[in-house]
Amino acid sequence: MLDAEVRKLRSGSDWSNLLEVAALHPTYGFGNLMLINLQMPDATWVARADAWARLGRQVKTGQAIKILTPIRSRTTSPAAVESAGEAGPAADVEQEVIGFRVGSVYDVSATSGPPISYPYLVANTGYAVARTLWEGLAREAAADGFAVDVRPLGDGSAGFTDFDSRRIVVADHLNDFRAIERLAHEVGHVRMHSPDQGDGKACTGLREVEADSVAYAVLARYGISSETRSFSYLAGWAKAADPDQPANVIKATGVRVTNTSRRLIESADEYLKVHGVMLGPVTLRPQDQLSPSPELDGPVP
Ligand SMILES: [Zn+2]
Q1: CA-to-CA distance for 137 and 152, rounded, in angstroms?
Q2: pTM, to two decimals
Q3: How far apart are CA 65 and CA 48, in angstroms?
Q4: In angstroms, what is the span from residue 186 Cα to ligand 1's centroid?
Q5: What confidence tens digit (pLDDT) does each residue in 24-37 have?
Q6: How far is the CA of 202 from the centre of ligand 1 (A)?
Q7: What is the 211 CA–ligand 1 centroid distance (Å)?
């Protein structure tokens, strides 16, 4: 079933919708993001029934979203299970997963109970958020040994990564949000690509789709819309990369993009939190009145 869904991910809007689901659910793996997106494209906060029960909310059982839950071997350490997150086994524990079973999760819209607020707040992104997000991403670049420069670029381009001098350059003519988008794009290249691949140019073909996708997901997390989109070429590039099995290429791209976005989002979330940046409340679904609940700090596994 998943393969059939992957084959359908041809259009740019299908892909960006999947990236939005990924931005809101960074602990889920690509396969489960596909399943969630397929069954409920507008899902905004998905968790298991027991997690909703801990928040005092009941699920409407007829509205379950089916996902795949890993079955782990008995030798798996509790710490490994803990670190694997809800349903997206991290790469380092994957060898201990011995199969999958079908599990149920529920979107917030399929629950009822007392008012709650979202644990992550993604609307009304202001310049304080933008500045801190920029710093957080620059810190991620530095963790990989890449310095970030902002300077004029004579050719009108928005930026580039120089793998030789380990430097990311962002053009100084961009506004704050476009600069963040470019920095996320370049950090995406640093994390996913090597200068030895293909023709040595990072910003071409599937590599460009992947970097744009990471930037799109990271910005979507904080309510910032992206401008640059090469998604509409995804199907074409996938077919060029593997004429017989383009779906495999798209799947590999999806896994790379969601894994890279997850790490950047988790690190940015943490950086924003440490720096006390308050994100404005997001407008929820009508049945959920907003109330402050600072004790919630992430999607509950
Ligand atoms: Zn690029």
Answers
A1: 20
A2: 0.80
A3: 10
A4: 6
A5: 888 898 989 999 98
A6: 6
A7: 6
